[in-house]
Design goal:
The complex is a heterodimer of chains A (109) and B (116). Chain A has 109 residues and is mainly β. Chain A contains no helices and eleven strands. In chain A, a hairpin with a 6-residue loop joins strand 4 and strand 5. The relative contact order of chain A is 0.35. The model of chain A has no long low-confidence stretch (mean pLDDT 95). The radius of gyration of chain B is 13 Å and the shape is globular. Classes of the chains: A mainly beta (109), B mainly beta (116). At the A-B interface, strand 5 of A face strand 10 of B.
Chain lengths: 109, 116
């Protein structure tokens, strides 16, 4: 079957670092996406990983291990505006996205 | 680049009426567009996938006669909620894929529908 798991909620402190993990089981895997969704808004694209390794984009980095079916999103120098839900999604052999339920990240001052 | 717009952003209608939502890719040609629905504090639910010039593919449990999708051009897709009922009240979000990034879906800002 196809499955995505990520924590429901995480809390972190402003200025700190947080890592949001995602594990997946996807047939015909074609890559792993991370999206950010603020409350009441549509998702915005953060990253796409298809090869193993770490990709850095400013304060945000995304890592993928295809052999382990594992990805994480790393957020550095946390700001209050980073409070949002972070959605992990894997792409299957039909180029369809399988969505995780999202991780709600709460940033405290 | 990769901007997707949706119109309207908010709509309130009476039960039994039909509502049309437009989704446009502004700076790229979208070979595929997706329609999602999201209820409060719940996950995104894919309703249908549409390719330009062909019929939409609906997810299981989504009534194609109730949610009419038209993908008439490479930059425009419309979702019509026919004979809307209060249980159709939700956040409807479109996304588009195409242009230089064949894999990435870019989302519109969403349309909030309230059926009275």
């Amino acid at each position: 079957g196809q499955n995505i798991d990520q924590p429901t909620e995480m809390t972190a402190t402003e200025g700190a670092i947080v890592q949001i993990n995602c594990t997946y089981q996807t047939s015909g895997f074609n890559g792993l996406f991370w999206y950010q969704q603020h409350a009441g808004e549509a998702p915005t694209f953060l990253s796409y990983n298809v090869l193993d390794g770490l990709e850095e984009k400013g304060r945000f980095s995304s890592f993928l291990s295809r052999s382990k079916g594992y990805s994480y999103l790393l957020l550095k120098e946390l700001q209050m505006k980073d409070s949002a839900s972070y959605l992990c999604a894997s792409m299957d052999s039909n180029y369809q996205l399988i969505w995780g339920a999202g991780t709600k990240l709460i940033i405290k001052p | 680049g990769a901007v997707v717009s949706q119109h309207p952003s908010w709509v309130i209608c009476k039960s039994g009426t039909s509502v049309k939502i437009e989704c446009r890719s502004l700076d790229f040609q979208a070979t595929t567009m997706f329609w999602y629905r999201q209820f409060p504090k719940q996950s995104l639910m894919l309703m249908a996938t549409s390719n330009e010039g062909s019929k939409a593919t609906y997810e299981q449990g989504v009534e194609k006669d109730k949610f009419l999708i038209n993908h008439a051009s490479l930059t425009l897709s419309t979702l019509t909620v026919t004979s809307a009922h209060p249980e159709d009240s939700s956040f409807y979000i479109c996304s588009a894929r195409g242009g230089t990034s064949r894999e990435t879906q870019y989302f519109g800002p969403g349309t909030r529908l309230l059926v009275l």
